[in-house]
Amino acid sequence: MPDTTSPSLDAWADRLNDCGRSGQPCFFLIDFELQRPRLWTLTELAASGVRFSFPGRPDTTRSGLPRPTLEANYIPRERYDQAFALVREGLQRGDTFLVNLTFPTPVRLSDSLASVYENSQAKYRILYPDHFVCFSPETFVTIDAGGYLETRPMKGTAPDTPAGREYLLNSPKEVAEHATIVDLMRNDLSRIAREVRVTEYRYLRSIDTAAGGLLQTSTRLGGRLPSDWRSSLGHYLLALLPAGSVSGAPKPATLDLIRRAEPGPRGYYCGIGGYFDGETLDSCVLIRYLEEENGTHLFRSGGGVTARSTAEEEYAELCAKIRIPLRER
């Protein structure tokens, strides 16, 4: 969370606190830079055109939109290498231990954002008309009715093959990157919760896509919030942002490095989306993200860079993530 918050961010947090206090179900979005928070009650959501599908509230509506195809115009390797070199300098100076470096890739989309939303499959799907569609596999935080707060950071991606599995489980770079993010998230949760513990460490998860499967490693950790957590829900979430898995560690210096290395603000990419059902909270990190801007489309992707990283491997990971996880016909 920044040292100072904007009036709109304070108002957003206060409104989410009010929803928590009164048990009013709502859906919300926050961008990575914490400049454009949005919140809708479910009644307001219907009029906005915003759609979402979460594990506890699936959206199975299908309107017969065609299955989309995607053609990427990958960013030049030279441009990526420039940003990577700047990040490596920061790592070598000791400014940071891990930086999540991302880029927007121009893509040719055969149909609309709505067609991607309706035809994709993911744990979390979000459509913000004229802005973006997201098909994220990554939980940010959940809070159950008893106030147990849990996060499941994802770090490490490889093709879903025997070689990919071997790489993720044994690569010193992937092991170190994952451990750094888990430590960061443990510290973040400890700011607002007690008895924070890791309950499952570095488990593998398969993600199906139209272009083939991916493997990712995740960890589960959590702790207990005060019994009146709902009345402070907005401010608790702000204390955890931006999400550590898509920024890096330590956060302040890493965020400065991201601003200098990346071509511009991320916007809602790498922010969070969340659904409060009146009793519990579920939220996701806005990754696997396709945005619309002035009639063109950009697919945003990236990965964690550490002292063990190579530009070749990180560029390959950035490109490998540019795919739509299409559901079966």
From TrEMBL:
Highest rank taxon of the organism: Bacteria
Domain called Chorismate-utilising enzyme C-terminal: residue spans: 77-321
InterPro entries: ADC_synthase, Anth_synth_I-like, Chorismate_C
GO biological process, one term: L-tryptophan biosynthetic process
Pfam annotation, one family: Chorismate_bind
Entry's Gene Ontology molecular function annotations: 4-amino-4-deoxychorismate synthase activity
Name the UniProt record assigns to this protein: Aminodeoxychorismate synthase component I
